[in-house]
């Protein structure tokens, strides 16, 4: 069912309107430093059900709850659990910021079953933009917010991306300008005896290493693509196709110089063999290939901030210019050490390139 979607700014009066809509159980897209979220009252099963419907999201995939400050977030966690001290330390170190913690749910937690998909754990985070935290404080309840895209598609980085994905399926979008980080938060599971990296993000394993050292270090689970098929394991990083453009995505390999025209996702100053010069950030080359350089100076933070915009742009331009696929020829140079930002870039690109349609997608 289609509804009118209002576009709101971040002035006081607009934030009050957004807060009232959220309190009334409506869906409102909110800006965060990572990507835009599709927000709903995390204490209301009915409001959270709306998120799953609007996104077409599988109901066994739980949501992250957002808070204005660490005290409110950690109040939803059990008072005592083995990694509670680590959670408090990471909150001091990284919040507000792009880190999500999975913690055991407090017996009196207000977060509804829908938001946590019936799990004994909850995912919590404090986003960075001051206007968003002001909105969260005005609402006075946690806000559940997955990325504001249709399930399995590219996460939105600005209000216009949200409109393109979900216009008519939500009450309002708060326009906080472009999301500076550009990739989803890092998710760390603190519900067991040892910290576990569930999803790589802008906060890297290298950033987390010191805090985690006294708790046995940060473990990385091996991706198990079949886990979500059973509908049991809800951890991200375990689902295959995601962040998918409509064109097929191919990682690495040689650019096809004669046959199928390819849209190119480049990284760094080096040109793929046999191609002309692609100077600058984006363009269409003489052979009619659209190309997008994630970072001509090979800066991985810049590459994160330009990744989803690049996938969206290459998808649209590639289709318009008759490309048969999108290729990222330089994938091998992105992720040399597995502990820095290359990890998140390679993770998202592998998901964009994963076979589609065989596995339920998430997020
Ligand atoms: O940067 C972000 O995290 C953005 C912004 C909007 O905050 N949100 C986001 O949400 O990326 P979403 O729904 O697209 O991804 C959240 C992931 C899901 O894959 C879900 O499986 C996982 O968090 N998750 C949520 N609760 C969990 C839990 N209790 N245990 C394990 N994983 C959980
Ligand atoms: Mg998502």
From TrEMBL:
Residues 12-203 form the YrdC-like domain. Its main location: cytoplasm. SUPFAM superfamilies: YrdC/RibB. It comes from the Bacteria. GO terms for biological process: regulation of translational fidelity; tRNA processing. Transmembrane segments: none annotated. One of its GO terms (molecular function) is double-stranded RNA binding. Belongs to the SUA5 family. This is Threonylcarbamoyl-AMP synthase.
């Amino acid at each position: 069912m289609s509804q009118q979607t209002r576009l709101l700014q971040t002035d006081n009066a607009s934030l009050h309107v957004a807060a009232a809509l959220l309190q009334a159980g409506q869906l409102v897209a909110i800006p965060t430093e990572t990507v835009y979220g599709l927000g709903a009252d995390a204490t209301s099963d009915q409001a959270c059900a709306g998120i799953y419907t609007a996104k077409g999201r599988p109901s066994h995939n739980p949501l992250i709850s957002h808070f204005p400050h660490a005290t409110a977030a950690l109040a939803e966690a059990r008072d005592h659990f083995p990694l509670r001290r680590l959670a408090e330390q990471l909150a001091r170190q990284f919040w507000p910021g792009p880190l999500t913690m999975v913690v055991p749910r407090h017996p009196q937690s207000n977060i509804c079953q829908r938001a946590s998909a019936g799990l004994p754990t909850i995912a919590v985070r404090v986003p960075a933009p001051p206007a968003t935290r002001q909105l969260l404080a005005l609402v006075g309840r946690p806000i559940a917010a997955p990325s504001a895209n249709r399930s399995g598609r590219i996460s939105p980085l600005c209000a216009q991306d949200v409109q393109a994905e979900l216009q008519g399926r939500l009450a309002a979008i708060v326009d906080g300008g472009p999301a500076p980080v550009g990739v989803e938060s890092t998710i760390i599971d603190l519900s067991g005896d040892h910290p576990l990296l569930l999803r790589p993000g802008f906060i890297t394993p290298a950033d987390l290493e010191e805090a985690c050292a006294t708790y046995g270090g940060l473990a990385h689970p091996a991706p198990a693509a079949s886990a979500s098929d059973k509908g049991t394991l809800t951890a991200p990083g375990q689902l295959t196709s995601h962040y998918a453009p409509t064109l097929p995505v191919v990682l690495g390999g040689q650019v096809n110089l004669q046959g199928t025209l390819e849209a190119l996702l480049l990284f760094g100053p080096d040109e793929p063999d046999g191609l002309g010069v692609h100077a600058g950030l984006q363009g269409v080359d003489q052979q009619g290939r659209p190309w997008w350089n994630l970072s001509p100076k090979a800066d991985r933070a810049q590459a994160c901030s330009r990744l989803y915009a690049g996938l969206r742009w290459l998808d649209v331009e590639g289709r318009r210019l008759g490309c048969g696929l999108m290729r990222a020829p330089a994938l091998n140079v992105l992720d040399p050490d597995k502990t820095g930002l290359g990890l998140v870039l390679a993770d998202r690109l592998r998901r964009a390139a994963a076979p589609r349609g065989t596995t339920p997608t998430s997020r």
